[in-house]
Amino acid sequence: MPRSLSGRSFLKLLDFSTEEIQYLLELAKDFKRMKRAGTPHKYLAGKNIVLLFEKTSTRTRCSFEVAGNDLGMGVTYLDPGSSQMGKKESLEDTAKVLGRMFDGIEYRGFDQQIVEDLAKHAGVPVWNGLTTDFHPTQMLADVLTIEEHFGHYKGLTMVFMGDARNNVANSLMVVSAKLGINFVACGPKDNMPEKKLVDTCKKIAKENGCTITLTEDVKKGTKNADVIYTDIWVSMGEPDEIWEQRIKLLSPYQVNDAVMKNANPGAIFLHCLPSFHDLETTIGKDIHKKFGLPEMEVTDKVFRSPQSKVFDEAENRMHTIKAVMYATLK
Q: In the annotation, is 33 catalytic?
């Protein structure tokens, strides 16, 4: 049992030990069992939290709202146009005001420094719902999904396909190093995680008996993979004009039948969602019209296959976020 996490912020997994991450995963399993059994668990009744969103979301918002309500808390949502932070009021002042009114603050937005500064000034736990650099709550859901499928995670190999310099790839590399999962970033040479973070993760991985590998070679990169993971090719907040550039750059790293067949038998597919795997979205239709692509980072066949665990993964956001809030607010 790690030391208490009460009062701590959840900003990036580099701040947490292997034992602390494992503790959060065990808590999430307990909460999932209670949710499935219909067992009330309003352990944080009387507390209030605020969700501060500068980037919109489906899974993150719903996970925090349902988890907060299940724990008995009052939940306030502030969308990008409902806060004066950085406009008429400084970040520091906003943090101090919210910290006086709420017991915890979730932030989803841009620069990692923003969530770090919120935590510095708020005086209450702050949780990172996503920044440009890291996406720690997603990682807990990913690992919980992997463990549910395989019965364990240590010693498995996870491959991230595509733009490996983004927040999801960064965080997958960190959580893999912390938990003894072999991590492979498979993508263009210029789209790899920053060297400083890679070096830090390699050091942590060595302590936990696993490896960090960077490769441009799809066949070598996905060989012996247990988990194939990808993300959309253009992240939130990036201009539409870069679609053509990204399609040309990342198309060789699409997750398709050949990739899944090259992985280990029984390998699973994960995606943090949303995904452009068909033409049922406005952006998907637009890209198809402009570039003739019926699917992008993953084929519809793989996305809908038995190997795909993306909806288990999406549900697990709720259980793992609940664990983070309970552990830091209890």
A: no
Q: What is the pLDDT of residues 276-313, one digit of tens each?
A: 999 999 989 999 999 999 999 999 999 999 999 999 99
Those residues whose C-beta lies under 8 Å from the C-beta of residue 212, and which sit 6 or more positions away, are: 173, 176, 177, 183, 185, 198, 201, 202, 205
What is this structure's pTM?
0.96
State the Cα–Cα distance between residues 209 and 205, nearest whole angstrom.
6
Query: Within 10 Å of residue 170's Cβ, how many Cβ atoms?
Result: 27
pLDDT band, residue 237 (cuts 50/70/90): low
Active-site entry in 59, 61, 70, 138: 138
Preceding amide of 274 cis, omega within 30: yes
Establish whether 135 is a catalytic residue. Answer: yes
Question: Taking Cα atoms as reference points, which of 38, 66, 13, 73 lies closest to residue 318?
Answer: 66
Query: Active-site residue 231, yes or no?
Result: yes
